[in-house]
């Protein structure tokens, strides 16, 4: 499963990076889903589904299996995922106005309902295409997950997917969680793919709450420092002002909380001036 996640994430980044798309508006927001479906069908003979939900574009690709017996992506499926990513990105970058989020869902409908999902902030796609961020930076901003849902088996249309608009606060919480988890995983030998969750992050009553889970290695103090740095980077990079305080709780049994103001997460003046 770890090898699968690493291969898929690498494929996603490469597919987005290799597309040279004009930033001139070609598609309207209202026609975005229809445009992705038509591109995949007319240019690649690929049957997908897509929906626009608020400012979020969902694109769904059903596949017979996400893995072969050796856990590597099958060649044909890899090619189809590449085509889907290129088509969806082409539409996202060629619209006016643009949606805010793009959600790619690839589901194994033939065997176990394994779902691979990537959520991207569309502005990050624009930055990548304009070389404002690197491929590695873009990968770090992509929220990826692998889950299993029995309802996905046999669902060629994606009816099982809950198609709610992605909220920026939820994206921010998920990205902080992912950054903490990847940082914690780097302390472990042979870590690869999507790491186990190392924190629970939520927003309640304008308070950003981070509950650290028991680290597999390293110190609690180190994990707290990592978590605070991750939160500061995300809220500043995405100009997220939807909270007043941050509460950071250590992992059990040492789950005492520390409170920080939003101002305390701002970068030092000299660093802010360099941006």
Q: Explain this structure to me?
A:
The protein has helices at 2-18, 32-44, 75-92, 122-129, 135-141, 168-185, 220-237, 269-274, and strands at residues 49-53, 56-63, 101-108, 114-121, 143-148, 199-204, 207-212, 245-249, 257-261. It is α+β, with helices and mostly antiparallel strands. It has two domains: 2-166, no CATH class; 169-274. The strands form two sheets. It has a five-stranded mixed sheet with strand order 1-2-3-4-5. Strands 6-7-8-9 form a four-stranded mixed sheet. A hairpin with a 5-residue loop joins strand 3 and strand 4 (114-121). The two termini are 38 Å apart.
Mean pLDDT: 84
Using DSSP, what is the number of strands? 9
Order of helices and strands: HHEEHEEHHEHEEHEEH
Quaternary status: single chain
By secondary-structure content and strand pairing, the structural class works out as alpha+beta
Span between N and C termini? 38 Å
Approximately how much helix is present in the residues? 25-40%
Percentage of β-strand residues: 15-25%
Largest sheet: 5 strands, mixed
Q: Give the count of helical stretches.
A: 8
Poorly predicted sequence stretches spanning 5 or more consecutive residues: 19-23
Cα gyration radius (Å): 19 Å
Query: What is the approximate shape?
Result: globular
- How many structural units, i.e. domains? 2
């Amino acid at each position: 499963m770890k090898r699968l996640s690493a291969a898929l994430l690498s494929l996603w980044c490469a597919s987005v990076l290799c597309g040279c798309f004009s930033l001139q508006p070609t598609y309207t927001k209202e026609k975005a889903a229809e445009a992705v479906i038509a591109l995949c069908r007319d240019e690649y003979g690929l049957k997908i589904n897509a929906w626009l939900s608020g400012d979020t574009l969902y694109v769904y690709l059903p596949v017979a299996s996400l893995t072969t017996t050796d856990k590597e992506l099958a060649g044909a499926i890899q090619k189809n995922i590449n085509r889907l990513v290129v088509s969806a990105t082409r539409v996202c970058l060629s619209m006016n106005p643009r949606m805010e989020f793009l959600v790619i869902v690839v589901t194994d409908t033939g065997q176990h309902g394994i779902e691979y999902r990537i959520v991207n902030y569309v502005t990050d796609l624009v930055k990548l295409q304009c070389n404002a961020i690197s491929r590695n930076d873009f990968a770090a901003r992509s929220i990826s997950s692998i889950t299993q849902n029995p309802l996905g088996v046999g669902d060629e249309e994606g009816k099982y997917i809950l198609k709610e608009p992605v909220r920026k606060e939820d994206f921010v919480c998920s990205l902080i969680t992912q950054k903490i988890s990847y940082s914690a995983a780097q302390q472990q030998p042979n870590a690869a793919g999507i790491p186990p969750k190392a924190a629970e992050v939520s927003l309640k009553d304008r308070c950003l709450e981070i509950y650290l889970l028991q680290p597999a290695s390293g110190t609690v103090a180190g994990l707290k420092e990592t978590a605070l740095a991750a939160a500061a980077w995300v809220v500043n990079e995405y100009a997220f002002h939807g909270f007043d305080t941050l509460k950071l709780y250590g992992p059990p049994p040492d789950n005492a909380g520390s409170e920080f103001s939003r101002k305390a997460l701002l970068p030092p003046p000299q660093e802010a001036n360099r941006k």
